[in-house]
Amino acid sequence: MSDFLIIGAQKSGTTSLFYYLSHHPMVRVAPQKEVHFFDLQYHLGVEWYLSQFTQASIESHTLSGEASPYYIFHPDVPRRVYELFPNTKIIALLRNPVDRAISQYFHEVKHQFEDLSIERAFQEEPQRLAGEAEKLRNDLNYQSYSYQHHSYLARGRYLEQLQQWWTYFPRNRVLVLNSEAFFYNPQATLSQVFSFLNLPTLELETYPSLNSGNYSTVSESLKQQLQTYFSPFNRALFDELQQNWGW
After folding, report:
1. Is residue 84 part of a domain?
2. Under the phi-then-psi rule, with left for phi > 0, alpha for psi from -120 to 50, and beta for the rest, what region is 112?
3. Can you tell me the distance from the alpha carbon of 96 to that of 72, in angstroms, rounded to the nearest whole number?
4. Looking at the whole model, is its pTM more than 0.85?
5. Looking at the predicted structure, is the pLDDT value of residue 71 above 60?
6. How far apart are CA 64 and CA 170, in angstroms?
7. What pLDDT, in 10s, does the model give residues 106-160?
8. Alpha helix (H) ranges present in 29-157?
């Protein structure tokens, strides 16, 4: 079974966290980071999913898990996870949504999933995503290219996504972390994760930053527009979490 899932958000440090956790002697992870079972491969069945962990020896491990950052955003994944593994612990890393949206845009361009300018991509997102969430909820075999690759703003409305997970999983089974704090002090955040998973703490020799990018060419005016857009969503999130991460 899957004892824990790192569900996202995309471009928020999940690759680094997954890598750090893989070094714990009592953790068994899937050989690849993004299994994508609960979102893209669900039709293959649970036996296929469990087989993804068989390449790792189980004698010296106590917990198994994986990281797929589309999980937090896909509207039907919380239900699918709960129906198969109701005792799974959920880990979410949330990054300043302005930086996250910009980072995702350049990620999609890099992998040739996006050919619009950054301004047009953000402007056309509502039309691209219209009706897609409902289709994903109603059809287990449906996959949405735009919902996965062109969801720059929607993925940053974090409270909406967390509420979907809290519908199925009690809050003490969902660990919500701040990406900026993780980037600044990875060991402190990693210790939080170990405590959440009831594992003895472990300090690594190094904490490489994986899958990061530098997008300093984006205009300040666009960043300000994004800040204005996300401001009410951030306030609602901070009120719910009773924390303020300074976004």
Report:
1. yes
2. left
3. 16
4. yes
5. yes
6. 20
7. 999 999 999 999 999 999 999 999 999 999 999 999 999 999 999 999 999 999 9
8. 46-51, 77-84, 97-110, 118-129, 132-138, 145-149
The verdict on whether omega for the bond into residue 30 sits within 30 degrees of 0, i.e. cis, is: no
Whether 167 is covered by a domain: the verdict is yes
Query: What is the total count of domains within the chain?
Result: 1
Can you read off the two tokens belonging to residue 65? 């898990």
CA dist 173 → 60, 76, 84, 151 (Å): 24, 18, 16, 26
Tokens of 58: 């189980």
Has residue 246 been placed in a domain?
Answer: no
CB 155 within 8 A of CB 104: yes
Q: How confident is the model over 162-220, as pLDDT tens digits? A: 999 999 999 999 999 999 999 999 999 999 999 999 999 989 888 887 766 666 679 99
Provide the CATH number for the domain around residue 95: 3.40.50.300
Strand segments (E) across 95-189: 174-178
Domain interval for residue 94: 4-241
Q: What is the pLDDT of residue 57?
A: 43
Q: Can you tell me the distance from the alpha carbon of 17 to that of 243, in angstroms, rounded to the nearest whole number?
A: 22
CA terminus-to-terminus distance, the chain: 36
One-letter amino acid identity for 214?
N
Q: Is residue 247 part of a domain?
A: no
**Class of residue 202 by CB neighbours under 10 A (exposed 0-12, middle 13-18, buried 19+):** middle
User: What is the percentage of the chain residues whose pLDDT exceeds 70?
Assistant: 94
Is the pLDDT assigned to residue 15 strictly greater than 70? yes
The answer to whether 166 touches 90, Cβ cutoff 8 Å, is no
